[in-house]
Amino acid sequence: MVLSNLETLFSASSTINHANPSGIGNCLFDVAEVSVGQHFYWQLGDYQVHGQVLLTSWVVFAIIATLSTLGNSKLKVETPEGLQNLTEYITEFVRDLAKTQIGEEEYLTWVPFLGTIFLFIFVSNWSGALFPWRLIELPNGELAAPTNDINTTVALALLTSIAYFYAGLRKKGIGYFKRYVEPAAFLLPINILEDFTKPLSLSFRLFGNILADELVVGVLIALVPLVVPIPLMLLGLFTSAIQALVFATLAGAYIGESLEGH
Protein backbone atom coordinates (compact mmCIF):
# COMPACT_ATOMS: atom_id res chain seq x y z
CA MET A 1 0.00 0.00 0.00
CA VAL A 2 2.79 2.41 0.88
CA LEU A 3 4.66 1.75 -2.37
CA SER A 4 1.55 2.25 -4.47
CA ASN A 5 0.82 5.50 -2.71
CA LEU A 6 4.40 6.64 -3.24
CA GLU A 7 4.13 5.92 -6.94
CA THR A 8 1.00 8.03 -7.31
CA LEU A 9 2.58 10.82 -5.28
CA PHE A 10 4.85 11.72 -8.18
CA SER A 11 2.01 12.14 -10.67
CA ALA A 12 0.72 15.66 -11.28
CA SER A 13 -2.72 16.45 -12.60
CA SER A 14 -4.42 19.69 -13.52
CA THR A 15 -7.87 20.52 -14.85
CA ILE A 16 -7.79 23.28 -17.46
CA ASN A 17 -10.93 25.22 -18.25
CA HIS A 18 -10.96 26.21 -21.92
CA ALA A 19 -14.30 28.00 -21.82
CA ASN A 20 -12.60 31.39 -21.54
CA PRO A 21 -8.86 30.98 -22.15
CA SER A 22 -8.25 34.72 -22.09
CA GLY A 23 -9.83 35.31 -18.69
CA ILE A 24 -7.45 36.13 -15.87
CA GLY A 25 -9.82 34.62 -13.31
CA ASN A 26 -9.85 31.29 -15.12
CA CYS A 27 -6.04 31.30 -15.28
CA LEU A 28 -5.87 31.74 -11.52
CA PHE A 29 -8.32 28.90 -10.99
CA ASP A 30 -6.29 26.69 -13.34
CA VAL A 31 -3.17 27.30 -11.28
CA ALA A 32 -5.07 26.63 -8.04
CA GLU A 33 -6.33 23.29 -9.38
CA VAL A 34 -2.85 21.87 -9.95
CA SER A 35 -2.30 19.05 -7.46
CA VAL A 36 0.36 16.48 -6.63
CA GLY A 37 -0.67 12.88 -5.95
CA GLN A 38 -4.11 11.45 -5.31
CA HIS A 39 -6.54 13.35 -3.12
CA PHE A 40 -9.81 12.81 -1.32
CA TYR A 41 -12.05 15.51 -2.79
CA TRP A 42 -15.06 17.22 -1.25
CA GLN A 43 -17.53 18.88 -3.55
CA LEU A 44 -18.60 22.30 -2.24
CA GLY A 45 -20.99 23.75 -4.79
CA ASP A 46 -19.07 24.18 -8.03
CA TYR A 47 -15.69 23.72 -6.37
CA GLN A 48 -13.61 20.76 -5.29
CA VAL A 49 -11.41 20.97 -2.20
CA HIS A 50 -8.86 18.54 -0.80
CA GLY A 51 -10.84 16.91 1.98
CA GLN A 52 -7.85 15.22 3.58
CA VAL A 53 -6.16 18.59 4.10
CA LEU A 54 -9.22 20.00 5.85
CA LEU A 55 -9.49 16.91 8.08
CA THR A 56 -5.87 17.02 9.22
CA SER A 57 -5.99 20.82 9.58
CA TRP A 58 -8.95 20.51 11.96
CA VAL A 59 -6.95 17.99 13.99
CA VAL A 60 -4.06 20.47 14.17
CA PHE A 61 -6.41 23.29 15.23
CA ALA A 62 -7.93 21.04 17.89
CA ILE A 63 -4.48 20.16 19.29
CA ILE A 64 -3.43 23.81 19.48
CA ALA A 65 -6.75 24.90 21.00
CA THR A 66 -6.70 22.08 23.58
CA LEU A 67 -3.12 22.77 24.71
CA SER A 68 -3.78 26.51 24.86
CA THR A 69 -6.95 26.05 26.91
CA LEU A 70 -5.39 23.58 29.34
CA GLY A 71 -2.25 25.66 29.72
CA ASN A 72 -4.04 28.96 30.37
CA SER A 73 -7.24 27.98 32.16
CA LYS A 74 -5.74 28.27 35.67
CA LEU A 75 -2.86 30.70 35.47
CA LYS A 76 -0.36 30.85 38.32
CA VAL A 77 1.59 34.09 38.51
CA GLU A 78 4.31 33.16 40.98
CA THR A 79 5.10 29.52 40.18
CA PRO A 80 3.78 28.43 36.77
CA GLU A 81 3.63 24.68 36.29
CA GLY A 82 3.01 22.08 33.61
CA LEU A 83 1.48 23.29 30.36
CA GLN A 84 1.52 26.88 31.55
CA ASN A 85 5.32 26.74 31.45
CA LEU A 86 5.14 25.46 27.87
CA THR A 87 2.68 28.11 26.67
CA GLU A 88 4.67 30.90 28.35
CA TYR A 89 7.90 29.63 26.81
CA ILE A 90 6.33 29.57 23.34
CA THR A 91 4.91 33.08 23.82
CA GLU A 92 8.27 34.45 24.93
CA PHE A 93 10.01 32.67 22.05
CA VAL A 94 7.67 34.16 19.45
CA ARG A 95 7.84 37.58 21.11
CA ASP A 96 11.66 37.56 20.99
CA LEU A 97 11.59 36.41 17.37
CA ALA A 98 9.21 39.24 16.45
CA LYS A 99 11.30 41.80 18.32
CA THR A 100 14.47 40.67 16.54
CA GLN A 101 12.97 40.70 13.05
CA ILE A 102 10.54 43.62 13.25
CA GLY A 103 12.01 45.94 15.88
CA GLU A 104 11.05 47.09 19.35
CA GLU A 105 8.54 49.72 18.22
CA GLU A 106 6.26 47.60 16.05
CA TYR A 107 6.80 43.99 17.10
CA LEU A 108 3.93 43.58 19.60
CA THR A 109 1.31 44.11 16.89
CA TRP A 110 2.66 41.15 14.94
CA VAL A 111 3.26 38.64 17.73
CA PRO A 112 -0.22 37.03 17.29
CA PHE A 113 0.27 36.63 13.52
CA LEU A 114 3.79 35.17 13.75
CA GLY A 115 2.74 32.97 16.69
CA THR A 116 -0.21 31.57 14.75
CA ILE A 117 1.91 30.89 11.66
CA PHE A 118 4.66 29.24 13.72
CA LEU A 119 2.33 27.04 15.80
CA PHE A 120 0.26 25.87 12.84
CA ILE A 121 3.32 24.89 10.79
CA PHE A 122 5.11 23.34 13.78
CA VAL A 123 2.16 21.18 14.88
CA SER A 124 1.32 20.29 11.26
CA ASN A 125 4.88 19.17 10.54
CA TRP A 126 5.12 17.13 13.73
CA SER A 127 1.74 15.54 13.09
CA GLY A 128 3.09 14.27 9.78
CA ALA A 129 6.19 12.88 11.50
CA LEU A 130 4.45 11.31 14.52
CA PHE A 131 0.88 10.38 13.57
CA PRO A 132 0.29 7.24 11.48
CA TRP A 133 -2.03 9.10 9.10
CA ARG A 134 -1.68 6.51 6.34
CA LEU A 135 -3.23 3.79 8.49
CA ILE A 136 -6.56 5.61 8.13
CA GLU A 137 -7.98 4.51 4.80
CA LEU A 138 -9.93 6.90 2.59
CA PRO A 139 -12.01 6.16 -0.53
CA ASN A 140 -9.26 7.89 -2.52
CA GLY A 141 -5.92 9.40 -1.57
CA GLU A 142 -4.45 9.30 1.91
CA LEU A 143 -4.11 11.48 4.99
CA ALA A 144 -0.90 13.44 5.57
CA ALA A 145 0.29 16.58 7.29
CA PRO A 146 -1.49 19.75 6.06
CA THR A 147 1.88 21.21 5.05
CA ASN A 148 2.40 18.19 2.79
CA ASP A 149 -0.06 19.82 0.36
CA ILE A 150 1.19 22.61 -1.90
CA ASN A 151 -2.12 24.46 -1.56
CA THR A 152 -1.60 24.84 2.20
CA THR A 153 1.93 26.19 1.91
CA VAL A 154 0.95 28.58 -0.89
CA ALA A 155 -1.94 29.87 1.24
CA LEU A 156 0.43 30.48 4.17
CA ALA A 157 2.89 32.28 1.88
CA LEU A 158 0.14 34.47 0.41
CA LEU A 159 -1.04 35.38 3.91
CA THR A 160 2.51 36.45 4.71
CA SER A 161 2.63 38.57 1.54
CA ILE A 162 -0.67 40.25 2.42
CA ALA A 163 0.64 40.88 5.95
CA TYR A 164 3.81 42.70 4.89
CA PHE A 165 1.97 44.74 2.24
CA TYR A 166 -0.59 45.70 4.87
CA ALA A 167 2.14 46.61 7.36
CA GLY A 168 3.90 48.88 4.87
CA LEU A 169 0.75 50.56 3.59
CA ARG A 170 -0.61 51.13 7.08
CA LYS A 171 2.57 52.87 8.21
CA LYS A 172 3.62 54.75 5.05
CA GLY A 173 0.47 54.97 2.97
CA ILE A 174 0.96 55.26 -0.77
CA GLY A 175 4.55 56.27 -0.11
CA TYR A 176 5.27 52.60 0.58
CA PHE A 177 5.59 52.02 -3.17
CA LYS A 178 8.59 54.36 -3.35
CA ARG A 179 10.63 51.34 -2.25
CA TYR A 180 10.33 49.94 -5.78
CA VAL A 181 12.37 52.79 -7.28
CA GLU A 182 14.95 53.04 -4.50
CA PRO A 183 17.88 53.40 -4.51
CA ALA A 184 17.57 53.80 -8.31
CA ALA A 185 14.60 53.80 -10.71
CA PHE A 186 16.12 51.17 -13.01
CA LEU A 187 15.75 48.63 -10.14
CA LEU A 188 11.94 48.74 -10.47
CA PRO A 189 11.62 45.38 -12.34
CA ILE A 190 13.98 43.65 -9.90
CA ASN A 191 12.15 45.01 -6.84
CA ILE A 192 8.79 43.91 -8.27
CA LEU A 193 10.18 40.47 -9.11
CA GLU A 194 11.44 40.18 -5.53
CA ASP A 195 7.90 40.50 -4.19
CA PHE A 196 6.79 37.65 -6.47
CA THR A 197 9.65 35.38 -5.48
CA LYS A 198 9.11 35.78 -1.73
CA PRO A 199 5.84 33.77 -1.55
CA LEU A 200 7.20 31.26 -4.08
CA SER A 201 10.32 30.58 -2.02
CA LEU A 202 8.32 30.38 1.23
CA SER A 203 5.75 27.95 -0.12
CA PHE A 204 8.03 25.62 -2.10
CA ARG A 205 10.72 25.47 0.59
CA LEU A 206 8.24 24.30 3.21
CA PHE A 207 6.35 21.96 0.87
CA GLY A 208 9.51 20.43 -0.59
CA ASN A 209 11.15 19.71 2.75
CA ILE A 210 8.05 18.13 4.32
CA LEU A 211 7.26 16.07 1.21
CA ALA A 212 10.86 14.84 0.90
CA ASP A 213 11.00 13.85 4.56
CA GLU A 214 7.77 11.84 4.38
CA LEU A 215 8.85 10.17 1.13
CA VAL A 216 12.21 9.07 2.54
CA VAL A 217 10.66 7.70 5.72
CA GLY A 218 7.87 5.99 3.75
CA VAL A 219 10.33 4.24 1.42
CA LEU A 220 12.55 3.08 4.30
CA ILE A 221 9.58 1.75 6.26
CA ALA A 222 8.49 -0.20 3.19
CA LEU A 223 11.96 -1.62 2.56
CA VAL A 224 13.42 -1.93 6.08
CA PRO A 225 10.54 -1.80 8.57
CA LEU A 226 12.63 -2.17 11.74
CA VAL A 227 15.21 0.06 13.46
CA VAL A 228 16.63 1.88 10.39
CA PRO A 229 13.76 4.42 9.91
CA ILE A 230 13.82 5.50 13.59
CA PRO A 231 16.87 7.82 13.39
CA LEU A 232 15.45 9.39 10.23
CA MET A 233 12.11 9.93 11.96
CA LEU A 234 13.91 11.70 14.80
CA LEU A 235 15.81 13.78 12.27
CA GLY A 236 12.47 14.53 10.62
CA LEU A 237 11.14 15.96 13.89
CA PHE A 238 14.15 18.25 14.09
CA THR A 239 13.91 19.43 10.48
CA SER A 240 10.14 19.92 10.85
CA ALA A 241 10.71 22.27 13.77
CA ILE A 242 13.44 24.09 11.83
CA GLN A 243 11.10 24.62 8.87
CA ALA A 244 8.48 26.19 11.14
CA LEU A 245 11.14 28.47 12.61
CA VAL A 246 12.50 29.43 9.18
CA PHE A 247 9.04 30.28 7.85
CA ALA A 248 8.14 32.41 10.89
CA THR A 249 11.55 34.12 10.87
CA LEU A 250 11.30 35.02 7.17
CA ALA A 251 7.73 36.24 7.65
CA GLY A 252 8.92 38.51 10.46
CA ALA A 253 11.88 39.69 8.37
CA TYR A 254 9.61 40.61 5.44
CA ILE A 255 7.25 42.52 7.72
CA GLY A 256 10.17 44.31 9.35
CA GLU A 257 11.58 45.19 5.94
CA SER A 258 8.28 46.77 4.86
CA LEU A 259 8.15 48.84 8.07
CA GLU A 260 11.69 50.18 8.06
CA GLY A 261 12.65 53.46 6.45
CA HIS A 262 14.46 53.56 3.12
Structure description:
The protein has 262 residues and is mainly α. The protein has one domain (52-259). It is 66% helix and 5% strand. The chain contains eight helices and four strands. The chain has helices spanning 2-9, 24-32, 51-72, 83-102, 107-130, 150-172, 188-223, 229-259, and strands at 12-13, 35-36, 41-44, 47-50. It has a two-stranded antiparallel sheet with strand order 1-2. Strands 3-4 form a two-stranded antiparallel sheet. Strand 3 and strand 4 (47-50) form a beta hairpin. Helix 6 (150-172) runs antiparallel to helix 7. The longest helix is centred in the C-terminal third of the chain and has 36 residues, at 188-223. The protein is globular and about 60 Å long. The relative contact order is 0.13. GO terms for molecular function: proton transmembrane transporter activity. Belongs to the ATPase A chain family. One of its GO terms (cellular component) is proton-transporting ATP synthase complex.
Name the features:
262 residues, mainly alpha, disordered N terminus
Low-confidence stretches: 1-25
Count of the domains: 1
Mean pLDDT: 78
Strand count:
4
Q: What class do helices, strands and sheet pairing give?
A: mainly alpha
Order of helices and strands: HEHEEEHHHHHH
| H/I helix tally | 8
Order of the strands making up the biggest sheet:
1-2
Helix content: 55-70%
User: In whole angstroms, how far apart are the ends?
Assistant: 56 Å
Q: How would a textbook summarize the main sheet?
A: 2 strands, antiparallel
Q: Approximately what portion of the residues adopt beta-strand conformation?
A: under 5%
Rg: 21 Å
The 3D shape can be described as: globular
